[in-house]
Design brief:
481 residues, mainly beta, 5-stranded mixed β-sheet, 1 helix
């Protein structure tokens, strides 16, 4: 279905009627009109006869991914501001890394990004937008740990994007960050995120699963507007503010103007919370309370998944009011199965020993708090099970050099060697060796007279994310040559 995006450059006045609400904002906003006919650019427009001198621009977007092949441009890497770098691989995985906040590229002339269209998709004319030439090719986004915020408009209209990985270092998601990402089916917001900006996931029409972290406090205006596939959402108790038309609204157009109307959706939350207040806005909203007389349980977050010698170790955050935890696991894209019930409220770790010999397998875990018959919610985290390797020797093979040898392990991408003059590896250097069949590496530029401690682990990269095994035992070598 084709839609029209309206971009408002000045303040408009909010109107409501029993059947609908009209769009309004004090900032530049995007509005969809489901009208197949073109709309002319005007210097003044009236919506329900009350909109003040607003400049409207209309552009077309489509709900479906582009029919044309997603080809990656010659520029497959670059910078995002001063502190961040990005790469786009041949599979369409966009990885951004570095430290600090993503820079915003919204300016007074940012609307030029939406000026020109081809086959229903934008052709950005602003060369400063880092992904202007390759956004159609992006299928997966991996935001690496260290990035603290996702800037406004960062990935707007990446219509072939299907998944996003957000680390616990991110604390906010800017307005319009993922607007129009019509192929995105699910999103997990980590506990570190406190704010989701206005229109952040607006018109993500395939989005059917949303997991909100326990640290979230604010969901911005129209954040999930026009998310046609979203029929249920659980809102954590931590959320104190839910913006206008944030959840469960769809855009409509009529002779009297453009606005939003509520659609059927189930909102799960807590008594007396912002979620309950918001759900009361429309009879089309169904509110399910997560409270009972026995306990009020929040969301349990997995803090880490680690490959250890005996399996995968799971650590999670303690949930107030819980009497224990239920651990669920799924293999690959399969369904969840309960693997363990923890009966102690103070226990916050468990090692899954059933996967110890499943080298190369992908597992997703969820830890759910419970009290009596009441269960809370749990966020998901994925890990690839990797068995480690064994160091067989480390020898001073030549002047200022040491040759490291180990046993080969199948189904891995390669090996990471760590070496240090400290037996505790308080400071160290690393070397990566690619290839599962590689079994040796020569370390160079070592200092004569020093003793070096060496250890090794396997690693595997899957869809842009790198997973590691446990470290091997350490060997030491004195450099005498």
């Amino acid at each position: 279905m084709k839609k029209k995006l309206l971009l408002f450059m000045t303040t408009v006045v909010l109107l409501t009627t029993p059947a609908c609400v009209s769009f309004a904002s004090d900032t530049t906003d995007v509005i969809i009109v489901e009208d197949e006919e073109s709309i002319e650019t005007e210097t003044e427009v009236s919506i329900n006869d009350e909109v003040s001198e607003s400049l409207i621009m209309s552009v077309e977007v489509t709900d479906e991914p582009s029919d044309e092949p997603a080809t990656i441009s010659a520029a497959s890497s670059g910078t995002w501001g001063n502190n961040l770098t990005w790469t786009l691989d041949s599979a369409g995985t966009f990885t951004i890394s570095g430290s600090g906040a993503m820079d915003s590229y919204r300016t007074d002339s940012f609307l030029s990004l939406y000026d020109e269209f081809s086959n229903g998709f934008i052709e950005p004319s602003d060369s400063t937008w880092p992904i202007g030439g390759i956004y159609k090719s992006i299928k997966k986004i991996v935001i690496e740990n260290g990035i603290t915020s996702i800037a406004e408009d960062s990935f707007v209209l990446c219509s072939n994007l299907t998944s996003i990985s957000i680390p616990n270092s991110v604390t906010s998601i800017g307005r319009y960050a993922f607007t129009g990402c019509s192929s995105l089916t699910s999103i997990t917001i980590p506990d570190s995120v406190t704010e989701i900006g206005d229109y952040a996931f607006y018109s993500c029409t395939s989005l059917s699963a949303v997991s909100l972290g326990s640290g979230l406090t604010s969901i911005g205006m129209a954040a999930f507007l026009d998310c046609d596939s979203l029929t249920s959402i659980t809102v954590p108790k931590s959320v104190t503010e839910i913006g206008w038309m944030a959840i469960g609204y769809k855009v409509f157009s009529s002779a009297t103007g453009t606005g939003g109307e509520p659609v059927a959706i189930t909102i799960k939350g807590y008594k007396g919370s912002a979620a309950e207040t918001y759900a009361a806005e429309s009879e089309k909203f169904t509110f399910i309370t997560l409270d009972n007389s026995a306990a009020t349980l929040g969301t349990c977050s997995i803090s880490s998944l680690t490959n250890v010698a005996k399996g995968i170790k799971i650590k999670w955050s303690q949930v107030s009011g819980a009497s224990g935890y239920i651990i669920y696991r799924k293999t690959g894209s399969g369904s969840y199965k309960k693997i363990k019930t923890i009966t102690s409220a103070s226990t916050v770790s468990y090692t899954d020993k059933k996967v110890v010999d499943k080298n190369g397998k992908t597992y997703t875990y969820k830890v759910v708090p419970y009290s009596g018959s009441t269960e809370g919610t749990g966020s998901e985290k994925t890990m690839v099970r990797l068995t480690g390797t064994t160091l067989t020797s480390v020898k001073n093979s030549a002047a200022s050099k040491a040759k490291v040898k180990w046993t080969a392990v199948t189904s891995v991408t390669g090996y990471q060697i760590q070496y240090s003059i400290s037996s505790s590896f308080s400071s160290y250097k690393t070397k990566k060796v690619s290839g599962a069949t590689s079994v040796s590496k020569t370390l160079s530029s070592l200092t004569k007279g020093n003793t070096y401690y060496v250890r090794i682990r396997t690693y595997k990269t899957v869809d842009g994310t790198t997973y590691y095994s446990a470290w091997s035992g350490k060997l030491k070598v004195k450099i005498t040559k």
